[in-house]
Amino acid sequence: MNIGQYTFEEFKQKAKEFHGYPAPGLLIGGYMVEAAKARLPEGTLFEAMVESGKCLPDAVQLLTLCSTGNNWMKVKLLGRYAVSLYDKFTGEGVRVAVDQKKLAQWPEIRAWFMKEKPKSEQDTDQLFREIEEAGDTICSIRPVTVSKKYLGHGHMTSIDVCPVCGEAYPGSDGSICRGCQGEDPYVSMEGVLCADDAPDLKVVPVEQAVGKQAVHDMTGIEPGESKGPITKAGDVFDIGDVCRLQRIGKFNVYDGEAVPGDEWVHENAAVKAFAKRMAGPGITYDPNPEEGKINFFAEYPGMLSIDLDALSRFNLSPDVMLATRHDGSLMPEGKGVAGARAIPLYISRDRFSRALTALGEGPVLSVLPLKPAKVGILVTGTEVFQGIIEDKFIPIISSKVINLGCTVHMTDIVPDEREAITRAAKAMLDGGCEVVITTAGMSVDPDDVTRAGLVDAGLHGDLYGVPMLPGTMTLVGKLGNAAIIGVPACALFYKTTAFDVVLPRILAGQELRRKDLARLGEGGFCMNCKTCSFPKCPFGK
C-alpha cells in the first residue's frame, strides 16, 4: 500500500535519509498522516497536533509543510500514538490513532508496538511486510475540533536582554529568561568552583599580620551568649588581636597589602552599592556593612512593598542574596524588613554588574504609609434590616479599620434589594467616603444581589474572588474615586479572612491586579488556630 505519492519502499528510503533508519513508528506514522490529509476538505490550510514525541513528528514533517520550526506542528506529549490535522482557523479536523483492538490480526506489529518481545527477537522483515499490508487499517479515525488556545500563532511583543545571563529572550517569558528561571536543561559550569570564582589571595600566619589591615570582618562566637566581629575590615592588627584570633581558632589571615585589582569587588563595597539601589521610600539602613551584610529597617510605620520580580532576578544572580519579610506585611517604625549580602569575600566585576542590572532602576523595598481614610460600612441583608438578626458586622469592621488609623465616616443597613444597595452606595460616595466596605451578599445564593447593586452604582475595575480561605468571595474594585471591598459573611465567624490581608494594601494605595491576588494563594489557607495570632502567622504570606 502506497504512502501518499510514495511507494512503501520509496518512503522507507526517505525515512532512512531523514530519520537515520526506517523506523517502524515513522512508517506507520506516514500512513496515519496520509489518512488524516485525505479526510480534510481540499484546499484546507491545516496544522498538526502530535501526541507523541517518538517518530510521529518526523512523519508529519516529511509529508506536510508542518514543522515545529514554523510552529504549524504542536507536539503535546500525552504518550499516545496519535496525530490530528486540523483547519488552522476553525480547529476542525481529523484525529488518527493506532487502535489497540485492530492490532490483534497483525501479530508482529502488535509485538513491536506493545514491546512484547525484545528487539533482538523481532522479525524485522515480517514487521515491514505487515506494516505495508495493514496501512491505515490499524488506526481509528474520527473528527475532532482542536481547542482555541492552540489556534493561531503568538507573536513576540518584544525582545529583552536577560539581566541575569545577558542573553536576548522573548519579553513575554517574564522579567528574566526561562533558563535563569530554572528551566535550563543542563548544569551550568558557573555552579562549579573554579579558579575564576575567587581571586588568589595571599595568606599569612596571624602573628605576621601585626601592623597590617584586616581584609574582612572576623567573627567570634560564644555559644548561647554572643556572636559578632572581633576584628572588622580595615582595622589594623595589633599584638592583642593575635591572641584573640588564635583563641577562636583563626591562625591564618589574608594579607591586607596584597588585595586583588579592580576586576574584583570587595563584599562591603558590593553590598553598599546594592543597598543604595534596593532601598526606596520608608526604608533606612546603616551604610556601614558588617561581614558583607546590610540590614534594612522601616523608617516609619506602614506596609512593606516589595518588587517581587526584582527580588527574584537578584537572587538568581550568582554570589549575592536578599532576604525579606513578606510583601504586604505591616511594619512598625524601626522594624527590620530585609537583609542583603555579597556572599564571597570578593565577587567578580562581571557578576557584580549583572547583580546590579538585575535590581533594575527602581527600588526593591519600600514602606507605604497607610492612608487614614474615611470609611463607609454598608451592611446588606433583609434579615438584619428588619431586625430579625442583630447586626454584628459594623462593630467588627469598625474595629479593624480604626486599628489601621481610619475613621468610620458613614454606616448603613439595607435589605437584599438591588435598588436599595445602589442608592446606599451612591449616598456614601456623595457623603465623602474614600473607602466603601460592603458586608454579606457576596455568595451564590439567589438573594445575594450586593454585587449587582454595586455595578448599578458604578462599580468598575472589580476583581471578584480571592484565592484565600476563608474569604474567597471577597471583592475589590473602584466605585467612582473610592476604593471598594466586598466582604463575605464568613467574616462574622472567622476572626481573620482575606479582608484583613486586602485592606492594608488598599489603604497603602496599591492598585491590585489579578496577578497580585493570585500570589495570595500561597499561604492563603487559614489553619483555624484556637487562638488567632494574626498577623504573626503564615496566613496571607
TrEMBL record:
Domain MoaB/Mog residues, every copy: 376-508
SUPFAM superfamilies, A to Z: FwdE-like, Molybdenum cofactor biosynthesis proteins
Superkingdom of origin: Bacteria
Spans through the membrane: none
PANTHER family found in the cross-reference section: DEHYDROGENASE, DEHYDROGENASE-RELATED
Protein's name according to its UniProt entry: FmdE family protein
Organism encoding this protein: Pseudodesulfovibrio karagichevae
